[in-house]
Every structure is written in C-alpha cells, then in structure tokens.
Amino acid sequence: MNTQQIIKLIQTDNLNKFYKGRDWRRLRIIALIRDNHECQQCKREGKVHVDSIKVEGERKSVELNVHHKYEIELYPQLALVLDNLETLCLNCHNKMHNRVFGATKQKKWDDEKW
Ligand SMILES: [Zn+2]
Ligand SMILES: [Zn+2]
C-alpha cells in the first residue's frame, strides 16, 4: 500500500481497509515486538509493566493498540513508518486521542484535566 492509496482511503472514508490490510498488520506486529508488548505511555509514567490483569480471578491480557504519533489523516505518508508508531494500552490510547482531539476541537479540556 502506498501513500497515494492511503490518501484515497482517507478521502473516501475507508481507512478501515488500511487497518485490515496486510501492510499495516505486518508493521503493527513489528512495532509490538520492538516495544516489547509494553505500553510506552505507562512506561514513561513509570508504571509497572503489566501485560495482563486479574479480573474476577482470571488473568486477562491487556489490550494493546499501536498508535500513530502523527495521525494518518494529517500525515498519510507516515502511516507505514515504524518510527511513527507506538504501542499503547487501550486506556492510554483513549486518553491520547481525547487529548489530541480535545485540543483541536474543543478548548475547555485544559483547565479541567491539567
Ligand atoms: Zn498505558
Ligand atoms: Zn491512536
């Protein structure tokens, strides 16, 4: 998949095809291995590494996402660049996006959350 194709998917609102594609799935795994299957944000915050949590006596693995530091929509040329990828747990990933989108779309986030 090349940048032109990715731009086309963005324009036609079909980015899910990118995420289902072989190129992304392969790169995603490389990113996970590089990051040791650890959430990079939790790591930065000095939290203990967990790759599973105990829920009602059962061990469940934490869902890990591979995040684009520079969003695909704005930087399609970085969609398949390993340096632009970062492993995040679901929790941090949601926070990351609230922060990013909150900062651009609405401005009231900063007094409350920081
Ligand atoms: Zn995390
Ligand atoms: Zn993301």
What about the largest sheet? 2 strands, antiparallel
Q: What is the overall number of helices? A: 6
- What is bound: which ligands? zinc ion
What's the β-strand tally?
A: 4
Amount of beta strand: 15-25%
H-E string? HHHHEEEEHH
Tell me the strand order in the biggest sheet.
1-2
Distance between the termini: 39 Å
- The average pLDDT score comes to 84
Rough shape? elongated
Give the radius of gyration: 16 Å
Give the structural class: alpha+beta
**Percent range for helical residues?**
40-55%
Task: Pick out the low-confidence regions.
Answer: 105-114
Overall domain count = 1
Features:
114 residues; alpha+beta; two-stranded antiparallel sheet; 6 helices; 16% strand; elongated; disordered C terminus; binds zinc ion
Please render the helix and strand layout as text.
Blueprint: H1 3-11, H2 15-20, H3 22-34, H4 40-44, E1 52-55, E2 58-61, E3 64-68, E4 85-89, H5 90-105, H6 109-113
Antiparallel strand pairs: 1-2, 3-4
What does this protein look like?
- With 114 residues, the protein is an alpha+beta fold.
- The protein has one domain (3-113).
- Helix content is 47%, strand content 16%.
- It contains six helices and four strands, in the order H-H-H-H-E-E-E-E-H-H.
- It has helices at 3-11, 15-20, 22-34, 40-44, 90-105, 109-113; strands spanning 52-55, 58-61, 64-68, 85-89.
- The chain has a two-stranded antiparallel ribbon with strand order 1-2. It has a two-stranded antiparallel sheet with strand order 3-4.
- Strand 1 and strand 2 form a beta hairpin.
- The longest helix is centred in the C-terminal third of the chain and has 16 residues, at 90-105.
- It starts with a helix and ends with a helix.
- One zinc ion is lined by residues 67-68, 93, 97.
